[in-house]
Design brief:
Length: 353
């Protein structure tokens, strides 16, 4: 006698064959997310979800909820909405638009290798499309394996681990849990490093060698590192590997040309240092007139790159006496970046095919 689960599973298989769908593995690409619109109400909803995540803010919950709802959500949405409006596109939030382009290209490449056995979708940790909603699509297709690739090259608790929390929270509700494969970092992947190096090389060929190449990573409270988060170490490894890769290309960059910094700090706590804005101001005052800046921690351009690095930090450098400031765009949906993402996924997918 068959169990109810077996009957349901078999019916699902018949439905898939009937609809010419044979899906074995679902690949989920994830990123942080964006508000649904560049206005105060949308920002309040987005910030409420984002800043309520205990992985993001590790302050005693009662105290933090009072601060969040009593102060931050009353003040910050209006200011943030103005910033988002400055980078918003006709298609929507840049991060979401770029993430969807990445998904389409990764899906096209994987289809060539695995046919209909693999589907690729994209979800945001906060906002839409949500991680639960996309996982539920996989469930409806009856996938046997789920591969999750958070598009944060360097593992961090507030980003990568938070993504795992969201995936786990959804799967805990399922009667049948597929095999789960979670890729938690790719900070040292050679294809990712080469793609970063390509962007630097292309920039130098166009604009010449800068006095300093600033590698600006997203910041994190220093306490997180002291408590065991490896993010800082992974950033350092990426920086060192990029230096080596660029050195092999004879671009004239020495170790002295590189500066690693951290941006986007929030609140009064001590964050990972040196800070990007303070470093840019110091470099200009020291007589370094030409700066190029890149952010290896961002797989897609977003508010923190298009507004903070492209405009806010440009103003800091120029007002302090700088003369040339160039932001090198994130990898986005460049072909070499898509090749890197496929390379990261392939070892896992090969074991499942």
């Amino acid at each position: 006698m068959k169990s109810r689960f077996s009957a349901k599973k078999n019916n699902s298989d018949k439905d898939k064959v009937k609809n010419n769908q044979v899906v074995k593995t679902g690949v989920l690409l994830t990123n942080l997310g964006s508000p649904s619109a560049p206005n105060k109400d949308a920002l309040r909803n987005y910030l409420r979800e984002f800043l309520s995540d205990p992985r993001v803010v590790e302050i005693p919950r009662i105290i933090w909820m009072i601060i969040l709802h009593g102060v931050i959500l009353r003040v910050r949405p209006k200011k943030s909405a103005k910033l988002y409006k400055s980078v918003w596109t006709e298609q929507g939030a840049p991060l979401l638009v770029i993430s969807q382009a990445q998904q389409a290209k990764v899906a096209a490449q994987l289809a060539q290798q695995y046919g209909d056995n693999v589907i690729v979708d994209v979800a945001m940790r906060y906002g839409e499309p949500s991680i639960p909603s996309v996982l539920q699509k996989f469930q409806q297709l009856g996938v046997d394996n789920i591969v999750v690739l958070p598009l944060y090259p360097q593992y961090a608790g507030p980003t990568t681990a938070s993504t795992f929390d969201a995936v786990s929270n959804e799967l805990q509700k399922w009667r049948y849990v597929p095999s789960l494969h979670f890729i938690n970092s790719y900070h040292n992947n050679s294809h990712y490093i080469k793609a970063l190096a390509n962007t630097v090389r292309e920039h130098l060929n166009k604009h010449g060698k800068p006095d300093k190449l600033v590698l600006s990573y997203h910041g994190m409270p220093e306490l997180f590192y002291q408590w065991g988060d490896p993010y800082y170490d992974f950033c350092q490894i990426t920086t060192d590997l990029l230096k080596i890769e660029l050195a092999t290309r004879s671009l004239g960059l020495s170790d002295d040309n590189f500066v690693m910094t951290f941006q986007s700090r929030f609140g009064k706590a001590k964050w990972l240092q040196p800070y990007t804005d303070e470093t840019l101001e110091s470099l200009a005052k020291e007589g370094h007139k030409h700066i190029a800046i890149i952010s290896p921690a961002f797989s897609a351009d977003c508010l923190e790159t298009l507004e903070e690095l492209e405009h806010e930090n440009r103003d800091v450098f120029m007002q302090a006496g700088g003369e040339q400031y160039h932001y090198i765009a994130a990898l986005n949906d460049r072909d070499d970046h898509i090749d890197a993402l496929v390379n990261i996924l392939t070892p896992t997918l090969d074991t499942l095919s």
